[in-house]
Amino acid sequence: MDVCLLAFLSAAVWMDFRSYKVSNTLIAAALASGLTFNLMLAGLRGAAWAMAGCLLLFILLFPLYCLSMLGAGDVKLLMAAGCFTGPAGGLFSLSAAVFIGAVFSITLMIKHRNFFQRLSFLWSYLTQIISGHCVKPYYDLKNPGRRETIHFSLCIGLAVCLYLAAGRGI
């Protein structure tokens, strides 16, 4: 089961780096595989566990998608991983992916010397949301900037690898 999950994640990362998109066909196959594996391993309880992992991540990530802070492919990829790992694995993977993404982002901001400019933009955006003004997308996901874009699928893949390694005591 882990090998299958890692194969899906690897393909998703490759697609993301190539085109800034992850195929819906790949995501659907990953979701179906995670559900099927858990159904075969633990029956209806396993299927419910898989669906709980998937739905929990959807509920947590949908607001970020609505604000254009996260792409649909990233949301669906995390949901597929949650289908394999269940709610606890999904939460671990989400937390680790956010941490890894933050490290990548800070590294890029330092490299491109726009750390304070990006923090100022984020502060302005959050202030706008809190003050109740109209909410505009944080980032134009249709035209990703090469310098400031991180491939969050890589963060997700690394986070799931950490989860799988932690489960084996590695």
Automatic annotation (TrEMBL):
Q: Which InterPro entries match?
A: Prepilin_IV_endopep_pep (IPR000045)
Keyword entries, A-Z: Membrane, Transmembrane, Transmembrane helix
Taxonomic classification: Bacteria, Bacillati, Bacillota, Clostridia, Lachnospirales
| Species | Candidatus Scybalocola faecigallinarum
The chain positions of domain Prepilin type IV endopeptidase peptidase read: 5-106
Q: Which GO terms describe its molecular function?
A: aspartic-type endopeptidase activity
Q: Which spans are transmembrane here?
A: 48-70, 77-110, 149-166
Protein's name according to its UniProt entry: Prepilin peptidase
Any Pfam family from its record, for instance, is Peptidase_A24
One GO CC annotation:
membrane
